[in-house]
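Table S2 (continued). Query chain:
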Amino acid sequence: MNIKSWLPFDRYTLVSRLSVAEVMSRLEANVTARKLNAVLFVQHYGTKKDSSDKPYKGVIKEQTFEIERIINYRNSFVPVIKGEVSHFLGQTEIKVKSSPHVAVLVFCAFWMSVVLLVCLAVTAVMLRGGFEFPMLIPFGMLVFGCLLFTIPYKLEANKSKKFLATLLEGEEVKI
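Corresponding output:
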């Protein structure tokens, strides 16, 4: 298992026999326009399903898209999926990048850096000879943070990956 499998980022390429126009048409049929929060002018991620029957919301322009799954529960780790569709060697290639929303990444980075600094400070104290069981709490928080920020994202990302592969009749290719 490599380190990439534990990070909240995914990059993969799907190859489909469908034409570029058919791929874009299928995406448009399953994506509703993203709504903005009128108060803060920020996008509201992880909201409950609206009246639309479409499973995704986002923006589709020319041969690119930025979408996210519409869910019936709160989950800040729903991946934002960015893709580019192109014709390559007689097949349609869909290059996909997904990650949590930028605000979630900023919060995660802040949380993990503070906890990591506390872990380093506790390690320095332990090396000087003082150890008490409560000193392990920051290390538990570090492990908990890693799991909290990775597992929900990976679960949602895998659902989206399977959906896109099925919808676009694509197969993942290893690069």
